Amino acid sequence: MACGNYSRRVTTSSRDEVGELARAFESMARDLAAVDAERRRLVADVSHELRTPLAALQALLENLADGVTPADPETFETALAQTRRLGRLVTQLLDLSRLESGVVPLERRPTPLGPLLEQAVRETEASGRDVVLRSDVRPPELCAEVDPERLHQVLSNLLDNATRHSPAGGVVTVSALRSDGALRLAICDAGPGIADPDKERVFERFARADPARTGREGGSGLGLAIARWVVDLHGGVIRAEDADPPPGCCVVVELPDGRRREHA
Questions:
Q1: In the list 90, 134, 192, 231, which could disulfide-bond 238, CB 3.0-4.6 Å?
Q2: Domain boundaries 111-263, CATH class
Q3: How far apart are CA 116 and CA 102, in angstroms?
Q4: CATH class of 17-101
Q5: Which residue from 53, 89, 96, 94 is spatially nearest to 203, judged by alpha carbons?
Q6: Strands 170-179 and 131-138
Q7: Boundaries of every domain in the chain
C-alpha cells in the first residue's frame, strides 16, 4: 500500500486491536483506491480536453508557416477561437478547483434578479449563435439574497450550455420567480433533451450526455459541474428536467428564499 498498490488486502478474523487495525487498513485502501482512480480519470480528461484545441491550433499554425493556408482574417479568427477555448477551459478548471477546496466565500447581498438575468442574456447573445434568448422575471422587482457574481456565473454557464445545444433559430428562455417558498430559476432550450439516466450525471466533471447533445461547438463538460457547486454553496438544488412541451431540456435551480428565512 505504501508503494501505491491499493489492490492489496488485509484479511483477519480477529476481533482484538490487531483485527481493528486490519479493518482500518482495509477501509483506508478502498478510500485511497477510489481517490487514485478519480485522480487518474481527471488527469486523462483534462489532457483530452486540452489536446483537442491544441492540436487544431498547431495544425493551423503549421499550415500558415508552410504557406498552405493564407494569412487572412478568417484564418486568424479560427486561431483566436481555439485560443479562447483553451482560456475558457483553464479558467473553468481553476474555478472548479477553488470551489471544491472551499476557498471561494460567498458574498450574499440583496440582488435584483431582473438586471442580473438581462446582463447574462446580453453576454450570451454576444457569442453570435443563431438562437433567440428571452428572459422573464416575475414580479419584475424580484430580489434574492445571493452572491451576484457567483449566480451570474451559474446563469452564464447554463445559458452557454442551452444555446450550444439548441437548433439554429431555436428559443432559449430564462425565468425567475418565487415558488413554494423558494426562488426558482429555469433555463430551457429547444434541443434534443437529456435521457433520464444522464440527468444526474451531466453535473459531474467532464460528463457528456447523449451524443445528440454534443452541439455544434462542443463544451468542456465543466460548466454544469461549476453551476452545481455554486448552487450547493447557496444551499440550493439544481436538476435537469424535460421541457414542457418537448423537445428540449430545462435546468432548474431552486434557492432558499432569504426573505422568508428572515421573517421566520
A1: 231
A2: alpha beta
A3: 25
A4: mainly alpha
A5: 96
A6: parallel
A7: 17-101, 111-263
Per-residue b/e over 212-251, b at no fewer than 16 CB within 10 Å? ebebeeebbbbbbbbbbbbbeebebebebeebeeeebbbb
Which residues, in sequence order, are CB contacts of 69 under 8 Å at separation 6+?
60, 63, 75
User: Which amino acid, residue 163?
Assistant: T
Closest among 48, 79, 81 to 222, alpha carbons compared: 48
**Residues 71, 77, 80, 86, CA torsion sign:** negative
Model confidence band, residue 214 (pLDDT cutoffs 50, 70, 90) = very low
Place of cell 486561431: 79
For residue 178, give the amino acid letter: R
pTM: 0.69
Q: For 14-36, write each residue's pLDDT tens digit.
A: 888 888 888 888 888 888 887 77
Determine the Cα–Cα distance for residues 122 and 133; give it in Å rounded to an integer.
Answer: 9
Q: Alpha helix locations (H) across the chain?
A: 17-66, 73-101, 113-125, 148-164, 223-233, 258-263
Q: CA 120 → CA 38, 106, 115, 150, 198, distances in Å?
A: 33, 19, 9, 12, 26
